[in-house]
Amino acid sequence: MTAVFLLDVLKESIMKNFTIFLSCALILAASFGCTKKNARPADLPEDMSPCSITITQDGTPVEGATVALEYETPVKYQTSGTTDAKGVAIMMTYGHAGAQQGTAKVLVSKLVTEGASEAEDYGESGEMGQDFETIDLKYKAVDTTDLTITIGKDNVAESFEVGAPVRIPAN
Predict the structure, then answer these.
(1) 3-class SS at 2?
(2) Could you tell me whether strands 66-71 and 79-82 are parallel, antiparallel, or unpaired per DSSP bridges?
(3) R_g of the chain, CA atoms, integer Å
(4) What mean pLDDT do residues 33-62 have?
(5) Hey, how many other C-beta atoms are within 10 angstroms of the C-beta on 145?
(6) CA 120 – CA 98 distance, rounded (Å)
(7) How would DSSP label each residue in 7-41?
(8) In terms of C-beta density within 10 A (0-12 exposed, 13-18 middle, 19 or more buried), how is residue 164 classed?
(9) Residue 164 — very low, low, confident or very high, per pLDDT cuts 50/70/90?
């Protein structure tokens, strides 16, 4: 009789833990299923235009540069992209392909880290690497860049030369 009682208690404990586990799993699954990644905001303009910007230094494509647009007329959502191996950045606005129509200054920057220890790559302490800007700082600020782009209804593909590579320590 004691063995039957112990089996009933064990069975009840397993069912209770399973129920808790199942409840947690369903809540977790529902929370992931209900979240839309990069859901399109209702106020994001519908008339955005496909836009690509190519960045070169001394005629050579720049890979890994950040390209951002600063519009003359303020906009709610940032438009930016990162250049690929061919120096081309596909411009995105709030995670959606395209750029808002209008005239904008083009901001370009590329930060590289030199001398980082392998330990840092794994979150361990070690000697810090040094960050350097590799594109002239004038292209990083709205007040000093001379790069502009006008985006209309059609597909826009512009190319910009940002001069010779530089090596400026970052702050």
Answers:
(1) helix
(2) antiparallel
(3) 26
(4) 82
(5) 19
(6) 36
(7) HHHHHHHHHHHHHHHHHHHHHHHHHHHHPPTTPPP
(8) exposed
(9) very high
Q: Partners of 160 in the beta sheet?
A: 55
Q: Which pTM does this prediction carry?
A: 0.71
Adjacent-strand bridge partners of 161 = 56
CA distance 40 to 73: 22
Residue-level pLDDT at 143: 96
How far apart are the C-alpha atoms of 108 and 83, rounded to whole Å? 10
- Going by pLDDT thresholds of 50, 70 and 90, the confidence category of residue 100 is very high
| Total length of the chain | 171
DSSP secondary structure of 107-156 = EEE-EEEES--HHHHTT---PPPEEEE-S-GGGTSTTT---EEEE-SS-E
For 114, residues 6+ apart whose C-beta sits below 8 A from its C-beta are: 129, 130, 132
Tokens of 121: 């790559």
Here the tokens at position 19 are 């129920």
| CA–CA distance, 39 with 21 (Å, rounded to integer) | 30
